[in-house]
Design goal:
The protein is α/β, with parallel strands linked by helices. It is 41% helix and 19% strand. The strands form 4 sheets. The protein has a 6-stranded mixed beta sheet with strand order 6-7-8-3-9-10, with helices on both faces. It binds adenosine-5'-triphosphate and magnesium ion. Adenosine-5'-triphosphate binds next to strand 2 and helix 1.
């Protein structure tokens, strides 16, 4: 593109001031962001890292002015937003292209919204298409393109408006490894050479290496609620070698930040209604169960045992080809159950963890059952309710309804599924999918439940 903005490094472009975001849920509320403040300066790329559900996309939507925060403010060049942020454009993980429009028309869309005349729209779109390597595909429809080419359209559509700030929400995570590597490299080059008509960029990712490769500054968001946990300047010169000791040390540092402090429990929920089967003790339901399967957890502990009791988290993720979102719930679960603990980017087996990894299946299950009841509030609650109940079962819908007070619908379901997996593995209770009931193992129907749905491994 011919128009290269004059960048004055350090100038504040976008400021986020004490932003908070709370959503209403079934009979409760969910605070997703709390007291988030950050500034995007000219000349820098900032990466936003955090677990799934930590509020990264929500924060981006607030910065773009697509959603108004519940508290605090977002400012563009010092002026608080009133609707869409005029200085930003977004790139989405899902590309978000209109299938009935050609590449050219999709790219022009960004300009139509800003009432740019047709001739100028056409010229600018062609320039953006050229810049991003889509030359020759102007009249193609999205379905004719590979994922990588579709995302190029996504980039062209954002860049054509020449935004001061480019916001990217996991732009590479729907692409295969090579395609994303290729596109990421090209964008970095364009940015470094000043060919991208934008002054600052914010990229959301849950890929630690990607963050460290791209960014001048990495911001780590904590979960439940999303708060800024750490800010890390990355001063390694570009291009960065992922295998250099400095790079690897930074990866370990981010792992250490992400796993260092267990996330604080969610805020106390509003008083439980009298219809809740959990009574006043129901508040324990707001402590999230890490969505880890018992099978994977066992595998992770065995891997640690095979390594003499500890291993770097980056190495584990590499070896298992796990994304952050696959690995962190397992680490959280191991931590919650006191089977392992993370320190300085490494995961260590605890004494209990060693015993667990060495035990035969029956003993492992017994040990798991004890730990789950002691350490996992949701599992403990379900066991307590079942033991108190006259008929020895509870409808899982009842539990789900209570969980929906503290979690989004999808997260509530994940909580329930995890609790069922854990409870079954520990043989604390059974689940009968046909009748949608959770039962004590001693319940007359429990054997049938085990047969019809298969005992969980
Ligand atoms: N409109 C909404 N109403 C209710 N809850 C919402 C809404 N939007 C997001 N949430 C909830 O807010 C939390 C944070 O969501 P968000 O999409 O911002 O997370 P994220 O960090 O982008 O996660 P991911 O890495 O999975 O993309 C989630 O629990 C989500 O279910
Ligand atoms: Mg997201």
């Amino acid at each position: 593109m011919t128009i290269t903005p004059k960048i004055t490094p350090g100038t504040e472009l976008v400021t986020v001031e004490n932003v908070g975001m709370t959503f209403a849920t079934d009979g409760g509320s969910l605070t997703v962001l709390e007291n988030v403040s950050l500034t995007l300066h000219e000349g820098e790329i900032v990466a936003l890292l955090g677990r799934s559900g930590s509020g990264k996309s929500t924060l981006l939507r607030c910065i773009a002015g697509l959603t108004a925060p519940t508290t605090g403010a977002v400012k563009y060049k010092g002026t608080a937003l009133n609707g869409a942020n005029p200085g930003v454009a977004m790139v989405f993980q899902s590309f978000a292209l209109l299938p009935w429009l050609t590449v050219q028309e999709n790219v022009e869309l960004g300009l139509e919204a800003r009432a740019v005349p047709a001739v100028e729209r056409r010229e600018r779109a062609l320039r953006a298409i050229d810049l991003i390597g889509l030359d020759g595909f102007e009249s193609a429809y999205p379905k004719e393109l590979s994922g990588g080419m579709r995302q190029r359209v996504g980039f062209a559509r954002a860049l054509v408006v020449e935004p001061d700030a480019l916001l990217m929400d996991e732009p590479f995570s729907a692409l295969d490894v090579l395609t994303s590597e290729n596109l990421r490299g090209e964008l970095l080059r364009l940015w470094a050479e000043g060919d991208i008509p934008t002054r600052t960029a914010l990229i959301v990712t849950h890929n630690i290496e990607e963050a460290i490769q791209l960014a001048d500054r990495v911001i780590v968001l904590d979960s439940n609620p999303g708060r800024i946990k750490a800010e890390l300047p990355i001063t390694l010169p570009q291009p960065r070698d992922r295998r250099s000791p400095e790079f690897e040390a930074l990866v370990d540092e981010v792992y250490s930040i992400l796993t260092g402090q267990p996330s604080a429990a969610r805020q106390p929920a509003p008083p439980t209604s009298s219809t809740s089967p959990f009574g006043a003790e129901g508040t324990e339901f707001d402590i999230a169960l890490p969505p880890a399967s018992t099978g994977e957890l066992g595998g992770l502990l065995e891997l640690l045992a095979a390594r003499g009791g500890q291993e770097g988290l980056a190495e584990i993720a590499d070896e298992l080809r796990y994304e952050l979102d696959d690995l962190l719930p397992l680490v959280d679960a191991a931590h919650m159950l006191k089977l392992a603990y993370a320190r300085n980017g490494r995961l260590h087996l605890s004494e209990q963890g060693r015993r667990y990894a060495a035990a035969d299946l029956l003993r492992a299950k017994e040990q798991f059952a004890t730990l789950a009841v002691e350490q996992a509030p949701l599992v403990r609650n379900i066991v307590r309710i079942l033991r108190r109940s006259e008929n020895g079962f509870i409808r899982s819908e009842t539990i789900l309804n209570d969980l929906r007070r503290h979690f989004s619908d999808a997260d509530a379901q994940t909580q329930l599924d995890t609790a069922i997996d854990w409870g079954r593995y520990g043989e604390l209770y059974e689940y009968d999918a046909d009748s949608d009931r959770i039962l004590l193992p001693t319940h007359p129907d429990a054997a049938r439940a085990g047969q019809t749905t298969g005992a969980s491994a």
